[in-house]
């Protein structure tokens, strides 16, 4: 019964939309025609924001000593980040728990294990990678490294797509009107739908170099691509 009710609701909504469109057409003066169409513009651009998540892990039989170790390392990491204004930094999940690391059948050997994460993000990728490398030197391990497209860049791209989409929509409405033998077209309504899809990012990351002759090696990363799209829906009156 629930499925039937949902289907009836969808049908009613569809019928209401058709009725509304029919009423709009009936309100038009004789000789005029309502044209509804949509245009989608897309652009694939390079991602501009690098996000790195690192974590510090430790274990000890004494929970207090364990937490002091984690707190000290996190304080050092935050001190490093304070010197880099271009990178946004946020501490993440902090977890401490007890476990038994004795082999099966062996005597219980209770240990405490803890971890805390820190997130680095910026459009200044080089500063993020250098800061991440410095934190790896302290003992942090890489948890995640990914590129994305910033909201500011996406909005800038959509502004340009909107202009071209509206121009195309107007041209398409004019073309449709001419096909019906009508010369004048007025745009009555415009609806803009924004969307942003992501292609598979092309990334490469590594931690400390295995060669002992290399004193320090920062992570490396390569940006992927994001597809930004915008759809313009118009209703035009052809005379």
Structure commentary:
- By secondary structure, this protein is α+β, with helices and mostly antiparallel strands.
- The protein folds into two domains: 29-48 and 149-239, Translation Initiation Factor IF3 (2-Layer Sandwich), CATH 3.30.110; 50-148, Alpha-Beta Plaits (2-Layer Sandwich).
- 37% of the residues lie in helices and 37% in strands.
- It has four helices and seven strands.
- The strands form two sheets. It has a four-stranded antiparallel β-sheet. It has a three-stranded antiparallel β-sheet with strand order 1-7-6, covered by helices on one side.
Query: Structural class of the secondary structure composition?
Result: alpha+beta
How many DSSP-defined strands?
7
**N→C terminal distance:** 48 Å
Tell me the strand percentage band.
35-45%
Please name the CATH architecture of the largest domain. 2-Layer Sandwich
The percent of residues in helical segments reads 25-40%
Looking across the biggest beta sheet, what order are the strands in?
A: 3-4-2-5
Report the radius of gyration as a whole number of Å. Answer: 29 Å
Shape annotation? elongated
Nearest-integer average pLDDT: 82
Largest sheet: 4 strands, antiparallel
Number of helices: 4
Question: How are helices and strands ordered from N to C?
Answer: HEEHEEHEHEE
Number of domains: 2
CATH fold-level assignment of the largest domain? Translation Initiation Factor IF3
Q: So what's the oligomer here?
A: single chain
Low-confidence stretches: 1-23, 198-214
CATH class value of the largest domain: Alpha Beta
């Amino acid at each position: 019964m629930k499925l039937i009710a949902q289907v009836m609701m969808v049908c009613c909504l569809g019928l209401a939309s058709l009725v509304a469109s029919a009423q709009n057409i009936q309100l038009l003066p004789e000789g005029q025609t309502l044209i509804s169409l949509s245009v989608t513009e897309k652009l694939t651009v390079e991602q501009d924001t690098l996000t790195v998540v690192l974590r510090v892990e430790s274990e000890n039989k004494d929970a207090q000593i364990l937490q002091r170790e984690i707190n000290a390392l996190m304080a050092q990491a935050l001190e490093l980040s304070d010197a880099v204004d271009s990178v946004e930094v946020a501490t993440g999940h902090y977890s401490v728990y007890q476990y038994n690391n004795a082999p099966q059948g062996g005597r219980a050997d209770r240990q405490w294990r803890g971890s805390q994460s820190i997130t680095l993000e910026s459009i200044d990728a080089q500063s993020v990678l250098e800061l991440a490398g410095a934190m790896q030197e302290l003992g942090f391990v890489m948890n995640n490294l990914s590129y994305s497209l910033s909201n500011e860049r996406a909005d800038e791209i959509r502004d340009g797509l909107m202009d071209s989409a509206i121009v195309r929509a107007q041209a398409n409405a004019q073309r449709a009107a001419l096909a019906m033998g009508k010369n004048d077209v007025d745009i009555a309504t415009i609806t803009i739908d924004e969307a942003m899809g992501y292609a598979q990012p092309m990334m490469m990351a590594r931690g400390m170099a295995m060669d002992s002759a290399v004193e320090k090696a920062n992570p490396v990363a390569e940006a992927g691509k994001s597809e930004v799209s915008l759809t313009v829906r118009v209703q035009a009156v052809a005379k």
